[in-house]
User: Fold this.
Amino acid sequence: MTTQRSCDENPAGLTPEHHDFRGIVGFPLLWRRHMTASLTPPIDDTKFGAFTDVGPWNIDLDAISWSANLDQLREEIRAKVPELTRKRRLPPGRRVVSILGRFGWAIGRWKFAKLRGLKGPASTQELSLRLRLASESLGSTYVKLAQIISSGEGVFPEELVTEFRKCRDQVPAEPFSIVKQIVEEDLGCKLHEVFHRFDQQPLAAASIAQVHRAEIKIDGEPIEVVVKVQRPRIAELVHADIAASAWLAPFLVGRIPVSALANPPALVEVFAQSIVEELDFRLEAGNMLDVARSLKSLEQDGYVVPRPHPSLVTKRVLVMERLDGFQFDDLDRLKAENIDPHDIVRTGMIGFLEGAMVNGIFHGDLHGGNLFVRPDGKTALLDYGIVGRLTEPKRVAFLKLLMASTTNNVHAQVEAIRDLGALPQDVDIDDVIVQLGLDGSGIDPMQFDQTELVEEVNRLIKALLGYGARMPRELMLFAKNMVFLEGAIATLTPELDLFAEITHISMWFVKTHGNQLADDIGIKTDDFKVDLTAMKGQFGVDPATAEFTYRELQERRELIAKRFAGKE
Assistant:
């Protein structure tokens, strides 16, 4: 009879940074049977998913223990959001006092600094610092919100993004004893019964979870995996924070002097929609499979998705394949591996757009920490807690929006935004166009100082709220990802001709998916032409301009920034 050892033992005499369980047997019977079956799979999972050519296990979609009823589970979780964000006459608990106190103190300190003469970018930096400190003091929910903002370059002010980015890698890790307890509770067995080795120190610690390197044994061979473990009581804390924030948000409309934060109720609603799904790792594992299948169906062979384990996934624990690679913006490494940076940019742009337009699914949180390049030139996509999913009507509306933007059809753009859920169905489209200045009388940032521009943005947001406008989650995720991809262009291919690239990608879509585009939105692909007039106007260049590089766009933005700061 085998004596079961304690999980706290260190049989190999290794350092405290990890536990090593070499030689220990006694895996749970169900898990051992599943692993044995996965060693001789009846199908090759690379035929339906964008996975590595040879993985530690194969995915049999009909034999995954955690995948039952994921669609129903997702709908049940989403149904909780309206209750969490509903209007309440009275504050939902004492948490409101803490939130109001922290952010009130932050804004008060910033206003005091303004009275002492702080202006321009220095003032925004001071406000960003105060908001970041308040977020960190309030805990995981607000750290997560700060992390989302930190990946929104271009959507949010540079000072705010830079300051909130400090939250991304500075979240204290949970003690290993807590991690061990959660893993054992969710998997229903001792740590050493499943893992050959489990590092005590995490690879990364974020607001919702932390990630540990570990090993499992398959057919006697140790296989490296990554284990994502949820923080204790995080779901309860998040729900309380969402309810409190939703109660406070209406009082803050137009009061936060950052244009991108001028509509707090919409921001709270979008944030709630995203974070509630992140609290169940079974949904994240399902997202991994769905995105992998989408990429494969579109023949996007430039991507790799890590395989989730077929049985070691629960609400709070996710075991997945460990992928290697290097940072996507490491130009020296790209050169050493003979990988063209333009290929990385174009693969990212087309793959992202194609997933949304054709299959209605896309990775919703692209940033430097969630993707890297493998030596074979493929891009590994990580972290599937946030994924954009479009229903068929919304996918068609989204498709119409993108195509209308390409052809400079303003009326069709606003109609598509309405159909995405941003505006009521009975809204007067022509009136919206006039009220928002989309009829050619819109604002020109070169004609306003920073205060005037913020006031104008606040006016537009209040006008939208008057129409009953909402912020569609998928549209916000898409916009945020586009900003990230724009940043990738700035880093990897600053001399890229934007007009030529946009035209190339648009025509590629028409050529590749012309029949589907015709069926979905009724366009005549033979007559399709790219109209960059509106985009050139946004960039502030002459309509006759034939070429415009990203470097020139940056110079243009720097000019506008100097105009804001009163330097020119």
